[in-house]
Amino acid sequence: MRILEKNMGLLDIGIRIILAAVLFTLFFTNTVTGTIGFIDLGIAILFTVTSFVGFCPLYKVFGFKTCPNKRLK
Fold first, then answer.
1. What average pLDDT score do residues 6-35 get?
2. How does pLDDT run across 22-62, given as a tens digit for each residue?
3. Is residue 20 part of a domain?
4. pLDDT confidence of residue 2
5. Which residue has the higher pLDDT, 31 or 63?
6. 24 in a domain, yes or no?
7. Predicted confidence band at 70 (pLDDT cuts at 50, 70, 90)?
8. Residues 6+ apart with CB under 8 A from 25
9. CA–CA separation, 54 vs 48, rounded Å?
10. Does residue 68 belong to any structural domain of this protein?
């Protein structure tokens, strides 16, 4: 039993990585600044971490899963 069981599929991970790249770009090019800029940066970091781990805590809370079920043979 794994503590953080994967609950994100490849499409979900890909979308999060693309959104994180866009949010990082907006922040580091000073397109988005101030408080909103730091919120933007926080979301980008969160998307990056959850993408690499393959686990989203909010999905766990709401019982949502985008990864395909693995069948045991």
1. 95
2. 999 999 999 999 999 999 999 999 999 999 999 998 988 88
3. yes
4. 63
5. 31
6. yes
7. low
8. 31
9. 10
10. no
User: What total number of domains does the chain contain?
Assistant: 1
Is the CB of residue 63 less than 8 Å from the CB of residue 5?
A: no
Of the CA atoms within 13 Å of residue 35, those in its CB half-sphere come to 0
Q: Which domain, by its residues, includes 14? A: 10-62
Hey, what are 44's tokens? 């980008």
With a cut of 60, say whether residue 73 has pLDDT above it. Answer: no
Token output for 42:
């926080």
Question: In angstroms, rounded to a whole number, what is the distance separating the alpha carbons of residues 66 and 31?
Answer: 32
Contact 12, 66 (CB under 8 A): yes
Distance CA 66, CA 13 (A): 10
Residue 47 resides in a domain: yes
